[in-house]
What does this fold into?
Amino acid sequence: MRSKVLFYLAFLFVTNLSFAQPYKTIKRYKPYKWMIGLHWAAIDDDGNQFGDLFNMKDSWMYSYYPTQLSVDRYFDNGWSIEGVATYMQYVPDKNVNDTILHQYATFANLDINGKYSFYIDYAPKARWIEPYITFGLGYTFRDSAFVAQHVPSVNLGAGLNFWFTKNIGIRFHSSAKIGVFPGFWTTHTNYLHHNVGLLIRWNEGKKEDNSFQKRKHKWTRKHGGRRKKGGH
It folds into this structure.
């Protein structure tokens, strides 16, 4: 009988202790919620798909002021979606689709891309570097590029973000814009889109829930009044 009582008391002690211990809910790391960028864009639209990739003097169209804006919304596990808008001018005496351009021309582009960041693979050891890839759909308007003015595209890109602080960084990005109409792949509707930009993000460095939560199980006792036994 004594052993049974000791076993029952030990069981109650262990059970009460386990219910009193806190438990931790592990959530994925979210580096930010919103990110915006202001970029200096360069367009390689010389019509040579795999040649003269770094011929900035004769082929690249660029400006000395920012011509591109991006907005990025982070979701989960490295995935985000970004919208990108670019507006700039083609300048004369540059090679555009195997022809020397003799006048100014308008270039405008809108993209919606999915983005996967490898940032979570580096955090927390190297949070200052963020390699990523992008893929999506785009629309390009060029009023004088010796091709169709309105071109839908498939976008494939990659880049690197470098973070100086938790909120401010710079971006280096390149993407291939593959025109899907008229023609596909081998037409002059394709071009390369490069950019370097300044990034600002917020609501960064937080987990959905990294706090300890306690499950409390209190054993309560009701304290009733003691009956007084009658006297003599």
In short: The chain is about 10% helix and 50% strand. Helices lie at 2-20, 119-122.
